[in-house]
Write a structure and sequence with these properties.
- The complex is a heterodimer of chains A (113) and B (114).
- Chain A is mostly beta strands and 113 residues long.
- Chain A contains no helices and 11 strands.
- The termini of chain A are far apart.
- Chain B has no helices and 11 strands.
- Classes of the chains: A mainly beta (113), B mainly beta (114).
- At the A-B interface, strand 4, strand 5, strand 9 and strand 10 of A face strand 5 and strand 10 of B.
Chain lengths: 113, 114
């Protein structure tokens, strides 16, 4: 079983603050890195899929970067809003075959109004 | 809009009962997955299926079986439920294995085994 680690496990920020968190994953046989947002009582939803070293993706105030050589990805949220409160999951795919990924435990973000 | 639905949001069963969790997706996806999520642990893969009647064990298949008789439906079966199977169960699907697709998740079933 691959080891995908996320830090911090939980985070409280004030509305308007920017924040970031980390996902580390095995760099060997790397194929893709996924970020998901999981709001309470809802289904996890995909934010980004990244495959290339140096990839940067952006969706509104949220962006992510990828370093496949050292095995980490950062997720950034600029100007956090209460609706950003959720658990952010990353998942690494480290070989081909049937889309099997390994998830980290997530970073639970609470944005305080 | 892809929809992945699960048969129940909450389920309470007794130890030893046979439990069926159903998952249906409406977008003709090839791959379907069953995960469980427990506090302090990431989503852990129980089983997945890449085609009708095909299945592969995930990381924690013990105590579970699956069935995929139709492309849109993937069932998780607990042959004899035990208290350590109390968990949140999530179903997911992806289009195919040729490109790296996001997983589309169902809303989850919170199973309690008494």
């Amino acid at each position: 079983i691959l080891n995908v680690e996320q830090s911090p496990q939980s985070l409280h920020v004030q509305e308007g603050d920017s924040t970031n968190f980390t996902c580390s994953f095995p760099s060997s046989n790397f194929y893709a890195l996924h970020w998901y947002r999981w709001e309470t009582a809802k289904s996890p939803e995909a934010l980004f899929v990244m495959t290339l070293n140096g990839d940067e993706k952006k969706k509104g105030r949220i962006s992510a970067t990828l370093n496949t050589k050292e095995g980490y990805s950062y997720l950034y949220i600029k100007g956090s809003q209460p609706e950003d409160s959720a658990t952010y999951l990353c998942a690494s795919r480290n070989s081909g075959g049937y889309q099997k990924v390994t998830f980290g435990i997530g970073t639970k973000l609470q944005v305080i109004p | 809009d892809v929809k992945v639905t699960q048969s129940s949001r909450y389920l309470v069963k007794r130890t030893g009962e046979k439990v069926f969790l159903e998952c249906v997706q409406d977008m003709d996806h090839e791959n379907m997955f069953w995960y469980r999520q427990d506090p302090g642990l990431g989503l852990r893969l129980i089983y997945f299926s890449y085609d009708v009647k095909m299945k592969e064990k995930g990381d924690i298949p013990e105590g579970y079986s699956v069935s995929r008789e139709k492309k849109e439906r993937f069932s998780l079966i607990l042959e004899s439920a035990s208290t350590n199977q109390t968990s949140m169960y999530l179903c997911a699907s992806t289009f195919d294995g040729t490109v790296d697709n996001e997983q589309f998740f169902g809303p989850g079933t919170r199973l309690t085994v008494l």
